[in-house]
Structures are given as structure tokens and as C-alpha cells.
Amino acid sequence: MLLPGRLSLDHRKRVVTKPSQEVQTEFLRLEYTDPKTIIPDLYVRALEYDLFVEVAVTHFSDEAKVRRLREHRTPAVEVDLSRLSYDLTREAIADAVLRTAPRWWLYHPGIDVAETNRREDEERWRAAQDERRVGAAAKHQKRVVELISAYWEASNALAEESSQISRLEELQATGFAEHVGIEVAGFACFAVPPEVWQAIILTEVFHDRCLGNGVCKAVPITQHLEKAGLIRQQFRRVYAGLADDAAMIEPDFAPPWKAVDAYLKHLARAGVLVQHDNGMVLARQFAEPWTTRTLAEKQRTAAMHAAMQAVEWILAELPAEERGNATSESWLDSVHTESGMKYRAALQSGIEAPKISAEINAAVAMLEKRGPLPYGTVGLPIEGAIQRRKVQMAKQAGELRKKHIQEAERLRHSRRERLCIDAEEQLSGSGLDAFLNTTRDELNRMTPLEAAEDSEPGLNRARDLLSVLVRQLAREGDAAAERQHYQDKIIAEAKRRLASEHSEAFLNARDDDLGRMTPLMFVKDDSTYRKALAKLSEWDREFGHLSR
Fold this sequence. Notes:
Elements: E1 2-3, E2 6-9, E3 15-18, E4 21-22, E5 25-30, E6 42-46, E7 49-56, H1 63-72, E8 76-80, H2 90-100, E9 103-107, H3 109-160, H4 168-174, H5 194-207, H6 218-227, H7 240-249, H8 256-269, E10 273-276, E11 279-282, H9 284-317, H10 320-323, H11 328-332, H12 343-346, H13 352-367, H14 383-426, H15 429-437, H16 448-454, H17 456-497, H18 500-508, H19 519-522, H20 526-547
Parallel strand pairs: 7-8
Antiparallel strand pairs: 1-4, 2-3, 5-6, 6-7, 8-9, 10-11
């Protein structure tokens, strides 16, 4: 038969749950009746003890029956057959009673012992818990008292402490000075007066953006102040319950993050901060002027550092006897003659700083042997360096002029040679000499050689004239060759048609029809040759029969 699981005690007297188990039973009888009017459905023996089995079909055991079973001190199990179908076989019903149907203990002495032990354990646990709660409450109350006492001591210490606000001048210039030094609950949790840590919140957190892209809320800001060592050790980790109880006794107390939150809310009410995403940012009317001032200050600081570095370099470049005891710091404390201010103050001036920087840069350029001489000394012992540079520049200018003259002479000679080479390639004899040495109106009454020596454009103009002359000579040569060709033809034709004496007379006789020119002089091309042939034909008709 399957017995249900139950509470029990293990060998160490601990309450455990024994799992259900199947046991071998010995059937004793049905409907057993004892003197105490307990009539179980089954009376069996298992695990060396008697066992009542109640089978519930429509009615389950009530409290009175369970009480009687407890008084009888005989273990009892109830089997639930209420869900079985009425048409089941005897074997199925028997199997349900023995194994498959739901079942539970109505009574078992081991269960009572386990329950008693469990109640005793619970009572001991509750007593220990109550004792711990009492101890924790006392400890908590002691911590509250200590916290309040520490807060009062810190408040008194702050009252006697003098404050030094960082970047106070910057806050005053931008109108934020009136928003620092605000007393809020919890201000004594900080190691410095309110104006100090509040100035840090405005300058470092909201202006410098030291949290980067982090949200500007109370907790991250408090963590930043804690890293800076501005929160007293005893107030760095105050849990909510402790803070609330302390505030009930001392209303001026609040944990550091709540003090920061109260200050942020004050700034928001004053219009200094506005909500942005999940945090706070400076309002535009405050942020933009402050940013502009900071950029200008950075530029002035950069100009100051650059000027000091340049001055240190200049002094290092000077001989020791000229430098003397001068340093960059002593130079800053000397007077700028134009403004009457010390150089330290003049470099902070928007008017004088650019002038001074330009003069220093000019002195640096001079010592680096580049650029012109500086107009002044900028309060530095550089008179000797200026004089040496002046002598050096004069020497360099003389050498440069000499180089320019030599280069100009070389270029003149080069241009002359280039023109001569070009002319010799295309002209020769008297024609070459005449071209090179004849003055030309086109060259401003200079010869081609003079024009080439004068400048590169003069060389180009001389070359153009050479090209024109060469083309002209080529045309004249072609015309002369053509004239000679036709002269040879008219001579041969005259000798063929006329007798010797008549041909000579014809060739050298001037004729009005030929422009008062002889036929030999007249012919120069095909058209003039034909006119001369026509005139020869007249002579042939008149004198040709005499020569035949």
C-alpha cells in the first residue's frame, strides 16, 4: 500500500518531509470497532504498527473524528475516492485504494512531534529576531544620536572656519556670486562652507562640464564632490532610514545628496538652471556670456604663456653680458612704456596684448635671421642684437646685389647667345651681320642684339623680326628663281625664232607695251611671259623671215 509523505524528525532532530512510500501491509479486518467508537474502513498493520485506513467517497473525516483518532493514538490515513467512476471494477477500486487515489494522513504521532519541534524552532527564531530587532533599533538609535552629534559639531566647526572660494573673480564677473553661499539642510555634511562647494558645482560641474556626458543630477554631483574630498567621512554613507530619523530630531540635517539637490532646486527657481533631458544645465542667458568670457580668458592666458616662452627663448639666445639678470618674470614686472602698465597687466589688455605679441615675434624673427628689424626692444636687452642684425642685413644686401648683378649679366649673355645661335642657323654672311647690328624702330631704336641683352621680351621681339626676315628672304628667293626660269625661257624662245642680232635687240629693247621695260626685265611669271611672247611674235612676223 502507498503511504503519503509526512513531516518527521531526522537523526539530528531536524524537521524534514519524508516522501511517500509503498509498504507491505497485513490486513487485519474491515469496519473495526473499538471502545472509543472509531470505526475505520480498513484496519491493517504496516511498518510494525497498526494503521487505520479511512476511504472517503462522499463524506470526509471531520475535526471530531480526527480528534478521536488522535486520542486513540493509532496512525490513520484517508484515501479520496470521490472522483472515481461508479462503474469501475473491484480490481480498479482496490488499486485506487492501495496506490493511485489521493491520500493524506489524518493522524500520525511523528507528525505531531515534528510540528511541535517546528513550532519550538519558530518560537526560538522569532525570539532571536525580536532580540536582533531590539538590538538593531538600539544600534540605529545610537547611530542617529551619533550622527546628529557629529552634525552639530561639524556645523560649529564650519561657523568658525573662513572660506576661500575658488574662481571667485570669475563668478563675480559673470553674476553668479550671489548664487553661492546658500544655506540648505545638510550643509554641515561638507568639509567646507556652502559657498565653496556650491562654487565648485557652478564652475566645475555646470561650466567646465567635468562630468562629461554624464547627467548633471544630485547623486553624480555628490559623487564628484566626494572624490574631491569635500564631504566629511561620517556623512558619506548615510542610508535613507538613518537620514529620515536624524531629520526627525534635527530638521537642519539632510544627507549630502539631498543638500546638493536642494541647492539645484534653488538655482532652478532663480532661473540659473533649466531642466534638460534627465538632468540640469545652465540657462542660455547665463551660459553664453560665461562661455564667451572663458574663451577670451583662455586666449589671454595662451598669449601670456606664448609671450613668456618667447621671452625666455630670446633671453637664452643673447650673450650672458647682454642678458644680465633679466628673466621672463622680471620682464613681466617691468613697465610697458607705451601704456604705462606692467607687461603682466598689458598682456591681459585686449588693446596692448596684440601689439606686444607682434613686437616679440619680430624680435624672435630677427634672432632667427629672418624678417625685418623690430621697431623697438619690447623692454628686452636686445639693442646689441639689433645692431648685429643690421650689420648682417647690410652685408647680406650687398652680397645679394652682387649676385643679382652677376645673374643679370649671365642672363644678358645667355639671351645674346641664344639669339646669335638662332640667327646663324638661318642667316649667313653680310645678311647675318646686317640683321644683328641694324637698329630697328620695332625694337625702340635698338639692334636685335641690344634688345636681346635688355630683357627676355626683347629677345622674343628680336626672334619675331628674325622670323619675318627669313620668311621675306625665302619669298624673294622664290620670286628670283621664278624670274630666272621665265627669263631663260624667253631667251631660248627669242634665239629660236630670231636671228642672233635680232634676238639680242628684242631682249634689250624697251617697249611701251611692257611698261617701258625690256622683255628680259619684264618677264617674272607666267602672265608676263605670255605678254613677252606676244611681243616676240610681232618681232617674228617682222624679222623672222630674214633669219630663215
